[in-house]
Amino acid sequence: MAEPAKEADLSRAILEIIREAGGEPRLIAVQDILEGLRERGLAEHLETSPPDDPCTALAAIVADLPEIASLASRSGQTLYHDPARLSRSYARLLDNQDAPDRLLAEAIRSHSRDYPRPVPVELFEKPPFDLASSDVAAILDAMAVKPQFQDIATIRTSTGTVYLFSSLYLPRAHAAFLAQQDATLSMNP
Hints:
By secondary structure, the protein is mainly α. It has 8 helices and 6 strands, in the order H-E-H-H-H-E-E-H-H-E-H-E-E-H. It has 2 domains: 4-93, Arc Repressor Mutant, subunit A; 98-187, Arc Repressor Mutant, subunit A, CATH 1.10.10.
């Protein structure tokens, strides 16, 4: 068992490492935290005490930090972030960066479920997505033929603006009303 002062230093260092990752923004795995501790000369206790795996010991310490949130990644790995610097929704988006169809579906579903609102297709051309309009169109075309994305639907307003929504959370008529209302308001600020 570590001395209380060393445990406090270790916990502080872990928080700093996770918060630094959140400032970039990115999620951080336990192996990356361990590397950060090694760079600071604070990993010795973890590498010399039971259990034999320092990552297991580190994961137990991180789990006891109430300021830190964890995310079960698509890869099966547990990733960490500071919810004060990186929201849980944004963390899920970051986890899906390498799977653009899942990235779009997650954003569309969360807007339909949580707000509830459809999203203009142009949303995906802005940060954090930064996709070209041709890429968004190609991704949506590919999603249209995949069963896991059959709830993703489009609506075109009277102004020609295309909105996306999830039929799991928003009925088409309500999504159309909200999209038209949003398009009208954006034309008349």
